[in-house]
Amino acid sequence: MQNVRTPSSELACYMSFGNRKLSAWFLSLTAAALRVSSLVDSVSYYDCKTAAAWRVRGADLAHAYSDSVIALLSPSRIASLPTPPWSYELEMLAYAYANVGNSSAALELVTRIVDDGRRTAGQDTLPTGFDADNIASVYAAIGDTASAMRWLKVGVRQGYSVHWYKMNARLQSLHGTEAFARFVRENDH
Prior knowledge:
Mean pLDDT: 83
Number of helices: 11
Number of strands: 0
Low-confidence stretches: 1-6
Order of helices and strands: HHHHHHHHHHH
């Protein structure tokens, strides 16, 4: 890590998905060290801290970081962002709600995100404007494996790799399941 002097918060976040050691390293970084300066940076920072915390320390710390995302993304703050539909922020908020056990709020946001994506793309095409990876993470967090797997397949069509899914800490509850193993076998080419 000494060779990466000042990684961006996004780079450090993705590095933290690599393994437990990198997750622990990311947890030790402060927002100031990563030059977190905007609302979106802050949300990304706490969202990545949530995933790293699950891998290294468990639910209590992960829930605390999810609570931070929920606090940052109040409806008035989302509405103040410069460009609708704020899909990324809504996806992070849905995952945070799912992570702290508020499944109904999480699913309400997922419905809104997907409906907005379908309106944008048209009913007969792949919904656009959001990451299926994040939608799958919400379903994984609430324990709906079948829906999570459906969205992972959409994510592959959006360009996500099976390798990413295998290391994505947000999908940890799926790793080791027969459904995930079958998905990997069918899509890892």
